[in-house]
Amino acid sequence: MATRKEVAELAGVSEATVSRVFNGVGPLKEATRRKVLEAAQRLGYHPNAIAQSFALGRSGNVGVVLPHVPKVHLFSAYYFAEILSGIGEALRENGRDMLVLLRSPDEEPGYAQLFRTRKIDACIVLGARDVPQQLAALRELRQEGMPFCLVNQRYDGERFSVVDADHVQGSYEATKHLVELGYRRIAFMNGSPEYSNSRDRLLGYRRALAEAGLEPPPGGLLEGNYSRTSGLAAAVRVGELRSSGLEAVVCANDRMAIGLVQGLRERGVAAGQDIAVVGYDDSDAARLCDPPLTSVSVPFYEMGRTAALRLLAAAQQSGAQAAEPFAATLPTKLVVRSSAVRRGGM
Amino acid sequence: MATRKEVAELAGVSEATVSRVFNGVGPLKEATRRKVLEAAQRLGYHPNAIAQSFALGRSGNVGVVLPHVPKVHLFSAYYFAEILSGIGEALRENGRDMLVLLRSPDEEPGYAQLFRTRKIDACIVLGARDVPQQLAALRELRQEGMPFCLVNQRYDGERFSVVDADHVQGSYEATKHLVELGYRRIAFMNGSPEYSNSRDRLLGYRRALAEAGLEPPPGGLLEGNYSRTSGLAAAVRVGELRSSGLEAVVCANDRMAIGLVQGLRERGVAAGQDIAVVGYDDSDAARLCDPPLTSVSVPFYEMGRTAALRLLAAAQQSGAQAAEPFAATLPTKLVVRSSAVRRGGM
Question: Which of A50, A92, A116 sits opposite B59 (nearest CB)?
Fold first, then answer.
């Protein structure tokens, strides 16, 4: 591999000039620049990107933090896969690479360290939760002026950049749809309230019930962890509630809804016929499962793309503008299928 | 942020000693090392990872090259999602991060450049094809002794490290299963022969037919591109072949099989009843679709994990050992569901 010295000799310039060309610093004549680049190309000279990044103070990498749980096939979850696809597309368009950072929810997040050590220039945090440790790590990033963005998670009262979906509206429409189909006793199976998007969904559910003069039925606020198995486990409780008149369940994601449908089937209860079930996310599985799920479509791909594009734009600003956090809320949309049909039509 | 000088003063050592501690070079007393680390911690000193990587000659990042196609939600494909999950798990266990490199199949791959510029220390290439440009780029990596590994792709006659699945056996068992169910006229819908795993599947299909004294029916070798839409499009041809006696189709992945099932349904032909269809991959969709697909389970997650672990082990070797490529072939397994039932039982 050619050295800087050889390039300098062939181009008839000093080694410092070669460095200036590759680091993009200092005033340079266009002719000089071209001479150096031609010599570098002829000799197969490749400036060291790390040394170069060091000089420029950046790596060209955008970090994406994902919550690591052992044995969970994280990339296979529709939610993360779609957001990552959107981020990947936007980063590629902008010549950046994606550094995937799997961090356990139980370990010190240490986001700021990733910037200080210049592994990344900017950062998108997925699956963050509203717990003190995580909040402190994000506040540190904010205080140090390191560009980052949250997806699908807000922290009330904090000035963090966020790209979110309108989950209040999504959950409101799902619940209202059931009310319009004639259901009165409608339960809600949520994920952990440590996620702002869980709290948003609960809000939308309650709002739709209140508008119809209804309340959650006794024992009708269930909690899972967004996994299929937690939906499967909830089938026992839902089966019991049915005998006291429960007619429908809104689930906070498709995986829990699919688990619930499977668990009910094992107990001889047919979703779509004996009880109405609505999912959330409109994943591939919602279309494919039996019965196909009425669900709420969330533009995860667009959310990832928007987060990356807004973040890269923000990272190029400086001063007061750079300090101003951005926020975007993308619309959700109800998709009607056959897991919830008109009451009496059952 | 504290400087190296301040750490040196507090620890009572030279700045060079501080550097040696953080770069892990040279002989050092354990007591000295501890003094420096304590001083660094008290002062909140963070050595610059890029500068440090530069000194050590590594980034701590393992690259994963993925074929980029605009608008395709790559991470949402079961195939890539599972392999990435396995790679991610193994890298995390070893304290490495994953640099995702989306590269268009039409652009110069330039793998070697990623090493030369020290963006990555080792590299896993997914979705590689047997085309001259890609082969040349991989040969360059091999010649320069840069550690890399292919997943699910072999190049005959090349000494590249590969982790693969036994697709000859997988396809053989899928076809043999149909023969045992009483089918004689069995078509095969493959992906591009630019993938060695497509050629392997064809081999297994032909072997099972030959053992039963059968041949592919006329026009019965179809080609798609592993997408659902290519399966959907093939339904026209399969419909025509049915009128000349076609009884069953083995598909080289589930997505094409699902597209084919949907396309046949639009034409009034029920898979599982009017024609037998077998998929490949045993993705979530295979379980969920209607009818549930008989398919071939491929341990993609384990393949990703194995590739990362073997690669990291190989990258730590030197000399003749490091030059020796590794190879692993993981077993596949037929999973029987209801898209192909006993002939006559239809």
Answer: A50
